[in-house]
Fold this sequence. Notes:
Helix content: under 10%
Low-confidence stretches: 159-170
Shape: globular
Structural class: mainly beta
Strand content: over 45%
Amino acid sequence: MPLDDGQVSIDGLVLGRGTPYTVREFNPWVRNTRADQSGDRPWSHGSWSGAEWSDEVVVPLGIFTQAGAVDGWQEAHQTLLAAFAPRSSDVEMRWRYGATEYRMLGRPRMVEPTVDLIGLGMAATRAAFVALDPTIYSADEHSVTMGLPSTVGGLTAPFTLPLTVDAVVTAGRATIVNAGSKPTGLRLRVDGPVQEPRVSVLTPAGTAIVRVWLTLGVGQWLDIDTAARTVYLNGTASRRGLTSVEGIGWPVLPGGGSAEIAFDSPVYNPDAQLTVFWRDSWH
């Protein structure tokens, strides 16, 4: 269910308007740089720095829980603790400002309530969420589905010259847009039957091509993650060793721009299908 303006959710628990939890502090935009190879210059003045990266993001939350009585506060606080419990995998943090709902992935890390007002059924709580990936994504995931290109029209013998009949390529191509400011990876699902599927992403920076050198039968599929650079057959078996990447490298969708997706195979099959998934992303 979409959030209201100003609401925040942690692993599905909604905080803010219409809930027992008032959000008094929330800042997911702090950014720090990690430069592990930096240090003193042993034979010269100053220092040096190697590769630099955005560090994980620690998001502070100030939450005021108000439930009207001690028992009500205890119940509301237990619900809050459950949302912030330690995990073995990432959970979602979502929030809405204006017309856009945003999303980050990470781990809840801290819940620290005050106790002076618990007798009145309320307490101020300091909490934190650590986003291991510092990218902010759109909560909505976009997708587009296409088949292999086919040709309609063209010249058919016998004919009388001069004669021009255009051939039109249908399917096999689509344009996708990233409304954010940061380049974002793509998830590609290829459903068989298809022989040696190839996905090309045409951007202003150049063309990136991913080709998998195998034949998919009916009911088989490939999951390709261009950010993680993984290729799985039927969701489990890696086929990274049968994958070649050509052009400018693993494809990404540029920030604030668009790209054209092309789906190809050396053998046409009307049942072959490519679905592209992506999210808008911001720094």
